[in-house]
Structures are given as structure tokens and as C-alpha cells.
Specification:
50% helix; two-stranded antiparallel ribbon; binds adenosine-5'-triphosphate; alpha/beta; binds magnesium ion
Length: 358
């Protein structure tokens, strides 16, 4: 039987999964149109799961996917960065060809052996030449953990991508590019000189709706023949705000840790036990939250204002502090235009962190 997953990307073979069908279809359309897309969302909102699933659907051999991850690149020099980048791209090309059962052509072998990338200009040329050797297949480049890009590299790297995108050369290579991360380009582009991506190509990944949570829990019910009280799903959704990790963590506690016998319906009293555990336990998501709220001493006063019912704070992304807390997924814009803590679980944990003796 599958289980609820909380350790990194979820896999539909092993885990229950929200399919995000509409968002995936939208994303694939943009890839097919050759768009350069950015996906920025806080930690553990399902970014990596999302593009893995999307790539699985893009099996069409017109496209040649190359997936990179910049997480390990953070403190590298420019030379090292491009050298690792080249090695990673090369491994990816070999992997894709092997998976597809295609042998690597003499010309491609020669090209890969004789090429070096040591800066952004050579990278641009590399992609142009690569496209010519892929028999019309279009390179779809996806970069996860883009925030790991070294500070010294980011500006030139983005310039080159912008140049590829606006030159509209045929074939455009990379044909499509997706940049995935927590911080948006404006926060990463330290000299703030360029904005290579059109704002329309920002792709948002929302928290789960109550219907998505229901569909996720239905998968468990189908496989385990254990039902949930209907009000439990709506309460769980309200308490977590549909935050993907928190939803799954609740589900894990309810289905694996509370030892509720299978013939029994999982009810509100069980939810309350899981809830009190959620308000106490350390897990990766809560650890991120607590680390983030302590990053800047100015966060405390603004968060305390947000949680106080009398005062409140207007949501205004021009304010650095508000923008940062939004980036980290701590606050969001409420329907009344005021700042709101993302969900009641975070609300409680923030109060507990700043007022530990209450
Ligand atoms: N489609 C999904 N269906 C069910 N659960 C999901 C889905 N996507 C994400 N999750 C939940 O969120 C967790 C994190 O997913 P994932 O690693 O894809 O997110 P991420 O945004 O890439 O995280 P990070 O910022 O840490 O890299 C998963 O372990 C799972 O609990
Ligand atoms: Mg990820």
C-alpha cells in the first residue's frame, strides 16, 4: 500500500499524490510554446514534485529534457560553477539518451569531449551547438534550487539566457527554460540591472484546495478501506491552509502513528490528538519556519503586530520585510488586504516561539 510522503518529492508509485492536473497542463503548454518560466514558491510547496510529474508527461521525443539542480553550487567560483554545470549537463544528456534507448552519435560524443564551458558566453554557444546535434529535438532545461547559484555568476548567467530568449534564433536553445526556487529573480539578481523574464511567465504553485485534500485522503480510503469523518477534512484544510507538507504530516500522524484500528472511521477526536502533536513537534517544515522567523530581528515586531487583532499590518510587497516573509511562506495577503499568517498552525508556532512563557 502507498503511504503519505513528507521526505522530499512524492512519487505516485509509493505515495498518495495530488495530481495538479490543470497546473501541469498549463506548464506543459508553456514549455511547448518555448517559454522561459519561473516557478518561485516557499519551501515544501511541491515545486520539485510538480516538475518531475510534468516531465513524466512530456515524453514526446520532440523534447530533450535536461534537469539541473544548483543546490550544491552556492559557494563556488565562477570557473568551478561552469565546470560543474557542464559535467551535470553532460551526464543528463547521456542519461536521457540511455533511457530512451538511443545511442549517442559520433558527432555528439566528439562535441561533448571537445567542449568546455567556463563562462556564460561559452554556455550560450554550447547550447546553440548542442541543438544542432540533437536532430531537431528541443532542449527543455529545468533548473531546480536556482537560489544556489553563486552571487558572482547570477547576473551574467541571466544576461545570456535573456539574450537567447529575445534573439528568437532558430532553433532556440534552450528551447524552453524553467527556473525553480524560493527567492525570485529580483531577490537574486544582486545588481538588479536586468529582468530577463517576463512577469507573465511567473508560475504560481498554490497550496492545496479542500477538494485536493479530499482527493488525496480518498486515495488512502480506497487502498486502506478506512474512512475519515467529513468535518475532519475541512478542519484539517483550514488548520493547514492546504500547505502540502503540513497536510501530509497530519495524514501520517492519523494513519500511521495514532494506531487507529482500520475498521474505525478516523474522527475529530483523532484529529485533535494529531493537532496537539503538530503544535509541539519538530519537523522539517516547522524547523524552516522557525529558522526563517529568526533570520532578521525586525521580523519579530512585525509578526507580533500581524498576530495582534487590534493592530494588523497592510500587505505591501514594496516593504522589504513583508516581501521577505512572503517569500519564505510565513505570511500572505488576506482577503481584507492585510497581512495574514499563512495558516493557524504557523500562527500558533510563531506565538509560541516569540512568547515562550505564555
Ligand atoms: N503533488 C503532491 N501531492 C501530495 N503531496 C505533495 C505534493 N507535492 C508536494 N507534496 C508534499 O510536500 C512535500 C515537499 O514536496 P517537494 O519536495 O516536491 O516540494 P519543494 O517545494 O520542492 O520543497 P523544497 O523547497 O524543500 O525543495 C512532500 O514531501 C509532500 O509532503
Ligand atoms: Mg524541491
Amino acid at each position: 500500500m502507498r503511504t503519505f510522503g513528507t521526505r522530499g518529492p512524492v512519487d505516485p508509485e509509493k505515495n498518495f499524490i495530488v495530481h495538479r492536473t490543470d497546473e501541469i497542463a498549463d506548464f506543459i503548454n508553456r514549455v511547448k510554446e518555448g517559454r522561459y518560466i519561473v516557478i518561485f514558491a516557499p519551501r515544501q510547496t511541491g515545486k520539485t514534485t510538480f516538475f518531475y510529474r510534468a516531465l513524466d508527461k512530456l515524453i514526446d521525443e520532440t523534447y530533450f529534457p535536461i534537469q539541473l539542480d544548483f543546490e550544491e553550487y552556492k559557494n563556488r567560483s565562477v570557473g568551478d560553477f561552469y565546470r560543474y554545470l557542464y559535467e551535470d549537463i553532460r551526464e543528463e544528456i547521456e542519461d536521457v539518451l540511455q533511457k530512451r534507448g538511443n545511442s549517442i552519435s559520433e558527432a555528439l560524443v566528439h562535441f561533448l569531449e571537445s567542449t568546455q564551458i567556463s563562462d556564460h558566453v561559452l554556455m550560450r554557444r554550447f547550447f546553440r551547438n548542442l541543438a544542432r546535434l540533437l536532430n531537431g529535438q528541443r532542449v527543455v532545461l529545468i533548473i531546480d534550487e536556482f537560489d544556489g547559484i553563486p552571487k558572482t555568476v547570477v547576473s551574467d548567467f541571466l544576461y545570456s539566457l535573456r539574450r537567447i530568449y529575445i534573439s528568437r534564433a532558430t532553433p532556440q536553445s534552450p528551447y524552453s527554460l524553467s527556473i525553480v526556487g524560493v527567492k525570485n529573480i529580483r531577490q537574486l539578481d544582486y545588481d538588479r540591472s536586468i529582468s530577463p523574464f517576463n512577469i507573465q511567465d511567473e508560475f504560481t504553485l498554490s497550496n492545496f484546495t479542500v477538494e485536493q485534500v479530499q482527493a488525496l485522503f480518498d486515495q488512502y480510503t480506497d487502498e486502506a478501506s478506512q474512512t475519515f469523518a467529513p468535518e475532519l477534512i475541512t478542519t484539517l484544510h483550514r488548520q493547514t491552509g492546504g500547505q502540502p507538507f503540513l497536510v501530509n504530516r497530519f495524514a501520517q500522524i492519523l494513519t500511521e502513528e495514532l494506531d487507529i484500528p482500520k475498521p474505525e472511521t478516523i474522527r475529530m477526536e483523532h484529529f485533535l490528538a494529531a493537532h496537539s502533536q503538530m503544535l509541539q513537534e519538530q519537523n522539517t517544515n516547522i524547523t524552516h519556519l522557525l529558522t526563517n522567523i529568526h533570520r532578521n530581528p525586525r521580523f519579530k515586531s512585525i509578526l507580533m503586530k500581524i498576530v495582534s487583532y487590534e493592530r494588523g499590518v497592510r500587505f505591501n510587497l514594496d516593504n522589504d520585510i513583508i516581501r521577505e516573509l512572503t517569500t519564505y511562506g510565513v505570511i500572505a495577503r488576506g482577503t481584507d488586504g492585510m497581512c495574514e499568517i499563512l495558516n493557524p498552525i504557523y500562527h500558533h508556532r510563531i506565538l509560541q516561539a516569540f512568547k515562550p512563557f505564555l
